[in-house]
Specification:
Bound molecules: nicotinamide-adenine-dinucleotide
Radius of gyration: 20 Å
CATH class of the largest domain: Alpha Beta
Structural class: alpha+beta
Distance between the termini: 31 Å
Order of helices and strands: HEHHHEEHEHEEEHEEEHEHHEH
Helix content: 25-40%
Strand order of the largest sheet: 2-3-4-11-5-6-7
Number of helices: 11
C-alpha cells in the first residue's frame, strides 16, 4: 500500500523491538488470558511473523482485539480443531472458535496427511477465529513442494462495499495461492500470492489511522458513500454512528473474487456468510476452503518444476520500467521485509503499543 508520506506528531512516536522481545511481550498477554504456554507462544510468534513479513496490519496490533474477543468469550483459548467429515481427500473441519493461528495450523497438518495418502486434499475449516496472514498456510504447503489455494471469508463487521455499492456488505476476504518453483537442487523461492480482496487490508487502515496518515484516492468511501482519504472512517464510528467502507480491488473483477471467497470460505465450509448488521462484538471469525495438490500425484512433477523455473526466468527478463526496481514475484516483498526487520527490528507505532499495553492491563499484566 502506498500511504501519503505526510508526517504527523502521532507518526513520529514509535517503539522498536527485536522479534524475540516482541514475541515474549505478546505471549505474556495470551498466557494471562488463559492460553497454554505453547498456544500463547504460537499465536505470538505468528503475529510477530506478520510484522516481520511487512504486514503490520496482521501483526501484534491485532492482539488487543484478540484479548477483547477472549473476554467476550467469543474466542476460546486452547480450542482444538474438530473433524466433521473425513472421507479420504475431503476434510470438513471446525475450528471451534479457537485461535486461527493454532487451529489453522492443525487443519493444514490434517490436510497434509491426506495429501501424503491421496495426492491432494480439499479441506474446509469453519468457525476459526482470525486466521491472520493466510500466506502462512501456503508457506507450510510450498515448503513440502505442494501447491496450495485458499479462499477465505471474514465474519465480522462488514467493511468492504460491493462494486457500485455505497456501504460495507462483506469483509476483506483474502485469497492466497502458493506455488513451489523448481525442484530439489534447482528449487527457487516459492510464489506466494496472498492478498485481501479489498484495495487495502482493513488492518492497514487501523495502522494508517494510528499513524495519522491519509490513504490514496479510490481506497475508501465515507459513511455517506462518498470518496474519502481518511482511514478513520473504517476504524472509528462516524458522526451518524455508521462506518465508511473499503473499496474492492480490481473493480468488478476483485468484487467477484471477494464474493467467491465468501461463498467458498463461508457457505461451503459451513461457517456461514455475513448478511446482517454488526452487533459490536470484537471477535473475527474466518471460514476457509483450502485445496492442496502434490504435483507428483498429477504425474507432472518434473515438467511442472521445469516450467515454473522457465516461466519465472522469462518474467525476470522483462526490462524494469522507469522508477521501479523491476519485476518482483509474489512472496519476494515479504522475504525482503523479513531480512530487513530481523536485522533492524520491528517498529510499532505508539498508538498501537498503547493499545497493547492497555490490553495487557485488562488481563492483569504490566508490559
Ligand atoms: P498486499 O496488498 O501487500 O499484497 C500482498 C501480495 O502482493 C503478496 O503476495 C505480495 O508478495 C505481493 N506483492 C506485493 N508487492 C508486489 C510487487 N511489487 N510485485 C509482485 N507482487 C507483489 O496485501 P494485503 O492485501 O494488504 O494483505 C495483507 C495480509 O492480510 C495478507 O497476508 C492476507 O492474508 C491478510 N488478510 C487476512 C485476513 C483475515 O481475515 N485473516 C483478511 C484480509 C487480509
Amino acid at each position: 500500500m502506498t500511504i501519503d508520506p505526510q508526517h504527523s506528531v502521532k507518526s513520529l512516536m514509535s517503539h522498536t523491538f527485536s522479534a524475540t522481545d516482541l514475541e515474549h511481550h505478546i505471549a505474556q498477554l495470551f498466557l494471562a488470558a488463559g492460553s497454554s504456554a505453547a498456544e500463547a507462544q504460537q499465536v505470538a510468534s505468528n503475529l510477530v511473523m506478520a510484522n516481520l513479513s511487512g504486514h503490520d496490519s496482521h501483526g501484534v496490533g491485532m492482539a488487543p482485539r484478540y484479548i477483547d474477543a477472549i473476554l467476550e468469550k467469543n474466542l476460546i483459548p486452547n480450542s482444538q480443531v474438530a473433524i466433521r467429515v473425513d472421507s479420504g481427500m475431503l476434510l470438513g473441519l471446525d475450528g471451534q472458535q479457537g485461535f486461527g493461528q493454532t487451529v489453522g495450523v492443525q487443519a493444514m497438518h490434517l490436510a497434509f496427511e491426506r495429501v501424503a495418502q491421496h495426492g491432494a486434499c480439499i479441506m474446509s475449516l469453519a468457525h476459526a477465529h482470525h486466521l491472520g496472514r493466510i500466506g502462512h498456510f501456503a508457506e507450510m504447503a510450498v515448503a513440502r513442494g505442494w501447491v496450495s489455494l485458499h479462499f477465505v471469508n471474514v465474519m465480522a463487521r462488514a467493511t468492504v462495499a460491493p462494486w457500485h455499492g455505497g456501504d460495507g456488505r462483506f469483509g476483506t476476504n483474502p485469497c492466497c495461492i502458493g506455488i513451489p518453483i523448481g525442484l530439489g537442487d534447482h528449487a527457487q523461492a516459492p510464489f506466494v500470492l496472498d492478498f485481501a480482496t479489498s484495495r487495502v487490508a482493513q488492518g492497514k487502515m487501523r495502522v494508517a489511522h494510528n499513524e495519522g496518515k491519509q490513504v490514496p484516492d479510490g481506497t475508501l468511501i465515507d459513511e455517506h458513500g462518498k470518496p474519502t482519504q481518511d482511514p478513520g472512517v473504517v476504524v472509528v464510528p462516524q458522526s451518524n454512528g455508521a462506518f465508511g467502507a473499503l473499496m474492492p480491488f480490481g473493480e468488478h473483477k476483485g468484487f467477484g473474487l471477494a464474493v467467491a471467497c465468501e461463498l467458498l470460505g463461508g457457505a461451503l465450509s459451513g461457517g456461514g456468510t455475513w448478511h446482517r448488521q454488526a452487533d459490536g462484538t470484537r471477535a473475527v471469525y474466518n471460514g476457509m476452503l483450502s485445496i492442496v495438490i502434490d504435483p507428483k500425484a498429477l504425474g507432472t512433477q518434473m515438467s511442472f518444476a521445469q516450467e515454473t523455473l522457465a516461466f519465472i526466468d522469462w518474467l525476470r527478463q522483462s526490462p524494469a520500467t522507469e522508477g521501479t526496481a523491476g519485476v518482483q514475484l509474489a512472496g519476494e516483498p515479504e522475504r525482503a521485509a523479513r531480512q530487513a526487520r530481523q536485522k533492524n527490528g520491528i517498529v510499532v507505532d505508539d498508538a498501537t503499543w498503547q493499545e497493547i499495553k492497555q490490553a495487557a492491563t485488562q488481563v492483569g499484566v504490566t508490559l
